[in-house]
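=== Given protein ===
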Amino acid sequence: MDGNILFSGPMIRAILEGRKTQTRRLATSPLAKRKPGDKLWIRERTMVDRVEGNKLWGTYVADGAPTGEVIIPLRIKRPTAGFCMSMGCFKGAHRLEIALKRVWIEPLQAISEEDCIAEGADKAPMVMGNDYLSPPESFKAGYRALWDSLHSVPKDSWDANPDVVALEFERIA
């Protein structure tokens, strides 16, 4: 594997369901240097259920699936039962891998409705000002809400329209 990438629980579920085939990250991310053909293993939140010696058994937080038996690398501080690896599992405990098909840089707001669907976004109502009536729901509105929930720094917000690296991928494991 050429590297790793962290995904949230809802995005892990979208990958597992086959609904997510793209991701966008700030253009300043190291992922901007990736190329088509690169393979990445996916880091995801993992809860440690049991530890025996240098082995652990856990649960993937996104869907409750068991990790099976995992060897704890020497460089990792031995976790205890109930410990959640919030920045994602280590390589030996990963279950998902992707291969990059296409990589490009664009302003965040250049994303199309189709790309929002490929991002795994859900539809969300677009609220206009104080108007309680919303126009039809859109995936772009859902993606905007998702983006802003993950990027609380004003310069990285949807309204700031930062440049992003868009990664189109296929799941390979």
